[in-house]
């Protein structure tokens, strides 16, 4: 069902339109102007979900270090894939107790356990009353995320279509017959009123693909790859990356990871193509990690990347995002030399947008230009060294124009893209071959 509604969303491009104006006229009221017609719609506040007597087998010990989602046991209601959704919990409502009975012991925050309120994790304190393997129960209230739509109905009226709430990556509200989507409303957690940050008017229907004159970029930058794709000669493609390339968190991952979508589309573009896809990926690590591994280890760069003897390497490393220009020039320069020595061609994927604060962003709007030095360094390195660049970052940077907050695509509420997010990588790759 999830995949079906995703496809419906992706195929509804013709039912989008840009409003002339979108204005807040109350805490939960939005005035819409489209083709001279004014109207006001009411947005439903995020609905709280109440949890009673939720049982847990044990409470993890509190860890003061690390990400907030790792500091203890995550409350189930706010769990995203692998992590929790920040600010979804109403922390003042949390009750941790010894049982679901009326005479249960009520444990105290800061004495028996430590709550990390924004990430909704609870960790056992060593001097408290909760024993290491003691079951516990939780009562709490939380809010899921939701993306509503302001639409123009076929009768010419304005209306709101409610999205389906989800703990981490809600889908856009589905349209009814004859609806035109004018804007999306991003309801992210326990917000008290709407602000401009919640309003996502439709500014463009889809990513503006470049019109090419002459041969596609792959003919110039990937000539051996093109020759093999066109002739049907066997070609080995190595997808090399981090957890995004591992990608097994995506539903039907053998079909929907970025590298699988890419190869499927390559085969459609080049019917004679005889492609072997190999994935070499290490979650939570970066290229430094590969280079540091000794011979014989599971992730040794020399053996697991170069030793594969691929014809084409496609690299994706959002975990390299801390690199500056000097680091990219040095490290990626080494990779380029190594790849040339084994006769491999190379495509560099720029990374997707991740949790806004990790990128130094305070908004999910007006973010066309990626602020990370790493992305600028990759573009400069690729241009100066004539390396093929698939610029997925550009596509993520324009999602807001299509009414899509990029964080809504993150299955773990941080940096693991869903099927649509993976598709943007494949779109960027196929731009080289169109």
Written overview of the protein:
This protein has 434 residues and is an alpha+beta fold. The chain has 3 domains: 2-46 and 145-201, no CATH class; 48-143, no CATH class; 217-431, SGNH hydrolase (Rossmann fold). 24% of the residues lie in helices and 23% in strands. Helix 6 crosses helix 12 (419-431) and helix 9 (325-341) crosses helix 10 (373-385). It is globular. The chain starts with a helix and ends with a helix. 42% of the residues are buried. Residues 1-14 have low confidence and may be disordered.
Kindly list the characteristics that best describe this protein:
single chain; 434 residues; alpha+beta; Rossmann fold; five-stranded parallel beta sheet; 12 helices; 23% strand; disordered N terminus
Topology:
Blueprint: H1 2-10, E1 21-26, E2 29-34, E3 37-42, E4 48-56, E5 73-74, E6 95-97, E7 113-116, E8 121-124, E9 136-143, E10 146-152, E11 158-161, E12 180-187, E13 199-201, H2 217-221, H3 223-231, E14 234-241, H4 243-246, H5 253-256, H6 258-269, E15 274-281, H7 287-292, H8 301-304, E16 312-316, H9 325-341, E17 345-349, H10 373-385, E18 388-390, H11 392-397, H12 419-431
Helix pairs in contact: 6-12, 9-10
């Amino acid at each position: 069902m999830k995949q079906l509604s995703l496809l419906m969303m992706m195929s509804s491009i013709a039912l989008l339109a840009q409003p002339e104006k979108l204005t807040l006229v109350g805490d939960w009221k939005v005035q819409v102007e489209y083709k001279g017609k004014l109207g006001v719609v009411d947005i439903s506040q995020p609905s709280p979900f109440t949890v009673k007597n939720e049982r847990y087998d044990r409470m993890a010990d509190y860890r003061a270090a690390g990400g907030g989602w790792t500091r203890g046991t995550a409350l189930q209601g706010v769990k995203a894939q692998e992590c929790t959704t920040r600010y979804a919990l109403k922390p003042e409502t949390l009750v941790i107790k010894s049982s679901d009975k009326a005479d249960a012991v009520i444990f105290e925050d800061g004495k028996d356990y430590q709550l990390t309120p924004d990430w909704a994790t609870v960790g056992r304190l060593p001097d408290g009353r909760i024993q290491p393997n003691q079951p516990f129960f939780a009562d709490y209230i939380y809010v899921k995320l939701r993306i509503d739509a302001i639409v123009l109905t076929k009768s010419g009226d304005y209306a709101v279509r409610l999205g389906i709430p989800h703990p981490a990556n809600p889908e856009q509200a589905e349209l009814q017959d004859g609806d035109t989507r004018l804007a999306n409303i991003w309801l992210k957690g326990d917000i008290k009123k709407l602000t401009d940050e919640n309003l996502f008017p439709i500014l463009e229907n889809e990513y503006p693909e470049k019109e090419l004159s002459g041969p596609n970029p792959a003919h110039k930058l990937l000539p051996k790859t093109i020759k093999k794709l066109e002739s049907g000669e066997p070609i080995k493609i190595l997808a090399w990356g981090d957890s995004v390339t591992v990608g097994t968190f995506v539903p039907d991952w053998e079909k929907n990871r970025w590298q699988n979508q890419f190869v499927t589309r390559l085969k459609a573009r080049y019917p004679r193509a005889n492609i072997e896809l190999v994935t070499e990926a290490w979650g939570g690590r970066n290229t430094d990690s590969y280079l540091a591994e000794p011979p014989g280890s599971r992730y040794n760069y020399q053996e697991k990347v170069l030793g594969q003897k691929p014809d084409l390497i496609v690299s994706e490393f959002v975990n390299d995002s801390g690199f500056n220009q000097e680091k990219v020039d040095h490290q990626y320069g080494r990779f380029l030399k190594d790849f040339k020595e084994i006769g491999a061609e190379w495509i560099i994927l720029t990374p997707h947008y991740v949790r806004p604060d990790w990128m130094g962003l305070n908004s999910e709007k007006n973010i066309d230009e990626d602020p990370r030095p790493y992305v600028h360094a990759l573009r400069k390195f690729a241009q100066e060294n004539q390396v093929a660049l698939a610029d997925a970052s550009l596509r993520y940077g324009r999602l807001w124009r299509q009414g899509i907050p990029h964080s809504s695509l993150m299955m773990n509420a941080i940096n693991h893209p869903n099927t649509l997010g993976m598709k943007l990588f494949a779109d960027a790759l196929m731009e080289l071959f169109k």
